[in-house]
Amino acid sequence: MYEQVSHSLLNAILDDLKPEIRRQDLRHFYTRLGANFYAIYSLFFTLYGHREDFKPQMLSLVETMAKGYITRSAELERVDILREQDHNWFLSQKWVGMALYTNGFADNLDDLADKTPYFQELGINMVHIMPILMCPTGKSDGGYAISDFRQIDDRLGNMNDIRRVAEEFRKRDILLVLDIVLNHTSDEHEWALKAARGESRYQDYYYIFDNREIPDMFEQTMPDIFPESDPGNFTWNADMQKWVMTVFHEYQWDLNYSNPAVFIEMLDIILFWANHGVDVLRLDAVAFLWKKIGTSCQNERNAHLILQLMKDCCQVTAPGVLFIAEAIVAPVEVIKYFGEDAIIAKECEIAYNATLMALLWDGIATQNTKLLYQGIKNLPAKLERATWLNYVRCHDDIGFGFDDNDVRAVGYEPFAHRKFLVDYFSGQFDASPARGMVFMRNDETGDARICGSLASLVGLESAQESGEPALISSAVNKILLLHSLILSFGGIPLIYNGDAFGVVNDYSYRDDPSKNNDNRWIHRPKINWERAELRKKQGTMEYTLFNAMKKMIAIRKETSAFADFNNRELLNVNNEHLLCFIRFNYQRPSERVLVVANFDANPQYLDLDDIGGRGANLNGRFVDLYSGSKPDTYDRWIVLQPYQFYWLTIM
Ligand code: GLC
Ligand code: GLC
How far apart are CA 431 and CA 378, in angstroms? Predict the structure, then answer.
C-alpha cells in the first residue's frame, strides 16, 4: 500500500542510516521494506507511538532489519527468492516433521548431524530440535529458560556444530526448526542480572514492581500455569527488593513488550538465527506476550500485533523463514495466530493444532468419535498460506482444552468428562490400559493435564508387561491409527522422538532432583539405539511399527490430495466409532481419498449409503492406498477391524 506519510518517513530514515549500512547493495531489501513499510510503521506506531522515544526506536528497528539483511548469506538469499516465487511451498504434502531433544535423540549436536540418515530412512524432512541455547543447570525448564540467546549450551555443542547440522540438513532438503523463546528469559540472563543489580534500563525489560499492589491486581484474573510447582505469577527478588512477573517457573522472567527496546532485541535474535540457516522458527508461548490487568493475560490483541510486526519485519530481511505459533489455547483463539482480518496469513504461517491433538485423545479414551467429529466440524477455516502442525504427542503435557459448547453438544458434561479423561489416561479408570501421570492438578479449578509417552498412553507399556500379543498389537494399531490421521488431515504432521518405535515412559526423572517436580520428563526419553536396531528385525514390535510408519509417510508424500489447501470434507456417517473425511486434490477435485478410522476396540462398518451420492455405487471400486488392496466389504458395507484405518481411493 502506498501511503505518503510513512513513505516520506521511510526516506528520511534511510537517509539517516549509518553510512556502513547505506553502502551495501540493498536492492531486495528496499523493495521489501517499501512493500511492508506502511504495515510496519502502523503497527509500531499503534504499539509505541505514544512514547517520546518513538522516532529513534523506529530508526533502530529499520537498522536492525538492514543489519540482518546485510549479514544474510548469498546462499540463504537464494533460498529466500526461491520461496518467494513458490510461496505456497510449505503447504505441500511432501513435508513430514519430527520433534526431539538433542540429547534425547543423540549424544550432542555433532552426533545428531551424524544421525541425519535416520531421518531419511523414516522419511522425515523437517526436524524441530528443541531448545539448544545456554540455560542454567537445574533451572532450565527443558531449555525454555535461556540465559544467552546467542550461545549454544556447551553440553550440546557449539556454533560450529549447529552450522554443521544446518548444512547437513540443507544438503538433504531437510528443514531445520529451532525455538525462539520470546516470552521470557532465565533469571540468569544478562538483562535479568543487570536488572537485579539495579540498572533501570534493564528493569524496564521486565515487569517489576515495588510492592504487591499491582501484582495483586494482575493475580485476580491470571490463571496459574504450574500451580503445583510454581503457584502465582510473581516472584520476590531479594537483590532488588522487588516483585518480578514470572508466569511460568519462578526463574523465568516475563519480558515486557510494552518496551520497544525489548521488541527490537528479540527481532535481532530472530534474524540472528534466521541468518544461521534456520528455516522455521518455533515461537514459544506466544499467547502470553502481552499482559493487561483485568485479563487472563493470554491472547491479548497486542500479542497479535507484536507477532504481526515480527512477521512483517522478518519478511523484509529473511522472507524465506516461517514462524510456528505455539499457542495451546481454545480453538477460536488458536486460529487467530495466523492473523485476523486478513486473507493470507500475516502472523505465523504454521500453528500447533492442539485442538485436533486433544480430540484424538478423546477418541482413544471413549472409543467414540462424536466429540472428535464435532470439534473438527467447528474448527474455524484457516487463512490462505497458513497450515496446521498436526501432532499426537510432543514434549509437553496434554490439556483437554476443547470448547465446552462442543462437549455439551455431544451430550457430555464438561467437568465430568474431563475428569473421566484424566482418570482414564492416568490409569485410575479400571478398564484403562493407559499409564499416564496427572500433571499440575489445580485444586481450586479442578483442572488437570496428562503426561506420558504415546506408547504408554495407548497401553503398550501395560501390554508388554502382560506379554499378551493381542494387547501389544492393539496398542500398536492405536499408534498407527493416530498417525494415519495426522498424516492425512491436512497440515504438516509432527512425529515425536521415539514414537516411531514405541518408546514407553521413562521413569528415571524421578531420581533427578532438577526434574522430579515436573513429570513432563516422563515422556522426554533418551533413545536406546541398540533397541532401535530392532526396527530392522522382522517379527519385532519395533519392526512392525517403524515399517508401517515409514510406509504411511511415503504414501502421504505421493498423495497430492493430502496437501493443505482447505481441501477436506468431513463426513457424518452414522457410526459413532468412525471418523471419516474426504481429501481431494485442489487442482483436480476428482482425485479423492476417503479417510476412514475406527476408534473402537470392536470391528465396525461403514455404510456406503452414508457417504452420500458418492458412496453406494462405488462399492468394489475402492482401493486402500496403504495396503494396496481392496478394503474388506460385506454387502454394501466396508468393514474395519478394531483401530483400523483406510485411505481409500477410487480405481
Ligand atoms: C512452551 C514449551 C514448554 C515450556 C513453556 C514455557 O510452552 O513448550 O515446554 O514449559 O513454553 O517456556
Ligand atoms: C504453556 C504452553 C503449553 C504448555 C504449558 C506447560 O501453556 O503454551 O504448551 O503445555 O505451558 O505445561
Answer: 31
